[in-house]
Write a structure and sequence with these properties.
Layout (H helix, E strand, L loop, with lengths): L11 H13 L2 H7 L1 E4 L5 H11 L3 E3 L5 H14 L5 E4 L18 H5 L4 H15 L6 E2 L24 H17 L3 E7 L14 E2 L4 H6 L1 H11 L3 E4 L2 E2 L1 H7 L15 H11 L5 E6 L3 H4 L4 H11 L3 E3 L4 H14 L4 H18 L11 H13 L1 E5 L13 E8 L2 E2 L2 E2 H11 L3 E4 L17 E8 L29 E6 L14 E4 L5 H11 L23
Parallel strand pairs: 1-2, 1-10, 2-3, 3-4, 4-5, 5-7, 6-8, 7-9, 9-10, 12-15, 12-16, 16-17, 17-18
Antiparallel strand pairs: 11-18, 13-14
Helix pairs in contact: 1-15, 2-15, 3-4, 6-7, 6-16, 7-9, 10-11, 13-14, 16-18, 17-18
Length: 545
């Protein structure tokens, strides 16, 4: 391990600080450095004590007002003997760190523009708005490949299903972010998006052959490492074929999730890919970690196998003791502990001294709107319904599916406001008043606009459209007799549930600028520019009809 080389490139002065700081710590203090805790799990006084007495290495706060997070970190920074890694999930813009930050859009929003320049703008917003609270470490980019449209957690968090596009855009993100003084942490090695399940709920599998994995996920991480990526987050995802290639004696049933797997952490990341940066687990509160082995063994095993840091605890004090117990039993060596702490301190030497930058960023909203204009994708327009006008369809009926709430208010209310401004009358679908009917009474001057905002989320098992129990009266039923447009704002795969709709649009993220961009395109005021990052037809031939 030479910390003067990529990715830290420590100066002699920085290297001296790392070595002297590490050597000045007791074993208990070194163990504390291995933990990144969730700030919101503790009262500020208790967290201050944990920082002071246990010497934890990092803290992550969920989004809150920037001023509040700055104040909390000021207290913790004053208490910390060693500067803290201040972490956030800057996956979608500044809003990943602060509630008053910009929700730029999910990565697939940017990928649909297929522009490196847009990814640069996105990463710049993530870095600069994150730094408004002093955040110096982001658990992004998401480098997963969305190979399985049934996966409920990757989806629009990724740059799509094409490995080359994911590699290119994530490379731009990492280089731009780190140029702006923020450490990137690419996730979720060895790669989510193959399984149709969620690692938050149990260990999942990346089942690609070793050859296919190295050509896809492996190639992405190799590129980012070459770019100078400072850290990698390892998921609770099993990659048995790669692990068994590294260790031919390994049996399938013995293969562990990446966060606990020596073959993947040391054998692939360290030895084959030459990664010299920091490796951290994904959240160890996730069942993908807790179900893999008894926790008293898992905590020291993660570090012994090659991770340098643990993210979140089911019980911090218990996990801290498990790590000490692992040192006493020999499950974790002091040499490996020192190596992990050295990399943690090396990352701190590069970014932890950065102070909050409170200057506003007026470009963020402009770039958000530009991205929205460029990403909206017309997937189907079979009956050439578009563009629409108030003369042809004076009345628009709005059917809302999923979550009506957005960062800018009600999705339906925003759409109504814009449509009425453009001269349309609007009405909202009311399942209580709707009854089964034939086609003769359909108003040919009315267009039905479906607004779907069914978001990905951890701990759910699927993202599907669930129709009204009352005869599914909200489903696009009379596709031959009634004019309808279906717009998805958060999931590009709804054609699996509405395969026969004739006009379908993907918009990838839901905020006012995106709703405005969609309606402009419906009216023909702006052309559709988006390039689908995935197979929106879900490999279903009937979805193309």
């Amino acid at each position: 391990m030479d910390l003067r080389k990529k990715p830290f490139y420590l100066t002699e002065e920085e290297l001296r600080w790392v070595n002297e700081t590490r050597d000045s710590l007791s074993v208990r203090q070194k163990v504390g450095q291995l933990f990144c805790v969730m700030g919101g799990d503790f009262e500020l006084k208790e967290l201050e004590r944990i920082v002071t007495e246990y010497n934890v290495g990092g803290v992550l706060y969920r989004p809150a007002p920037a001023a509040d997070i700055r104040d909390w970190y000021a207290v913790l920074d004053a208490a910390a003997g060693i500067p803290l890694l201040r972490a956030a999930n800057l996956e979608e813009g500044g809003s990943g760190a602060i509630s008053d930050g910009t929700f730029f859009g999910w990565p697939m929003t940017v990928a649909a523009t297929d522009e490196d320049g847009m990814m640069e703008k996105f990463a710049t917003v993530c870095a600069r708005e994150g730094q408004m609270t002093g955040v110096n470490w982001t658990f992004s980019p998401v480098c997963d490949i969305d190979m399985n449209y049934r996966n409920p957690i990757t989806n629009v968090r990724t740059c799509g299903s094409d490995a080359e596009r994911v590699k290119r855009l994530c490379s731009v993100y990492v280089k731009t972010l780190q140029k702006n003084g923020m450490a990137a942490c690419a996730k979720h090695f060895p790669g989510d998006g193959v399984d149709f399940r969620d690692q938050h709920l149990h260990p999942t599998y990346n089942s690609l052959s070793a050859k296919d994995w190295f050509a896809s996920y492996g190639a992405i991480y190799q590129q980012l490492i070459e770019d100078g990526l400072m850290s990698v987050m390892v998921g609770h995802i099993v990659q048995p074929n790669v692990a068994m290639e590294i260790n031919p004696k390994l049996r399938f049933e013995d293969c562990l999730p990446g966060s606990l797997c020596r073959e993947l952490l040391t054998g692939v990341l360290r030895e084959r890919f030459g990664f010299n940066g920091l490796i951290t687990t994904d959240a160890t509160i996730m069942s993908g970690f807790t179900q893999a082995m008894p926790r008293r063994h898992a905590i020291p095993t993660a570090i012994a196998a090659g991770c340098d840091m643990l993210v979140f605890s089911t019980d911090f004090y218990e996990d801290y003791q498990y790590m000490l117990d692992g040192l006493e039993s020999g499950a974790l060596t002091e040499a490996r502990l020192d190596e992990a702490v050295s990399r943690i301190l090396a990352l701190k030497a590069k970014v932890a001294g950065n102070r909050p930058k409170t200057a506003p960023m007026p470009e963020a909203k402009l770039w958000q709107a530009e991205c929205a204009d460029k990403c909206v994708t017309l997937v189907k327009n079979i009956d050439e319904l578009l563009p629409i006008s108030p003369e042809e369809y004076p009345l628009i009926r709005l059917v809302t599916l999923g979550n009506d709430h957005t960062v800018d208010g009600s999705m339906t209310a925003i759409a109504e406001e814009i449509l009425q401004r453009e001269g349309f009358q609007t009405e909202r679908f009311d399942i209580g008043k709707e009854e089964m009917h034939g086609t003769g009474a359909l108003d040919r001057k009315r267009l039905t606009l479906y607004l779907a905002n069914c978001e990905h989320a951890s701990n759910q098992t699927t993202i599907r459209l669930n129709w009204a129990k009352k005869h599914a009266l909200d489903v696009p039923r009379h596709v031959w007799e009634e004019s309808a447009v279906f717009v998805s704002f958060s999931n590009p795969y709804h054609l699996q549930d509405v395969p026969r709709v004739k006009t379908y649009i993907n918009a990838y993220s839901c905020h006012r600028a995106m709703i405005e961009a969609v309606i402009e395109k419906l009216l023909g005021k702006s052309e559709f520019k988006g390039v689908s990052p995935v197979d929106a037809f879900c490999d279903l031939p009937d979805a193309r009809l």
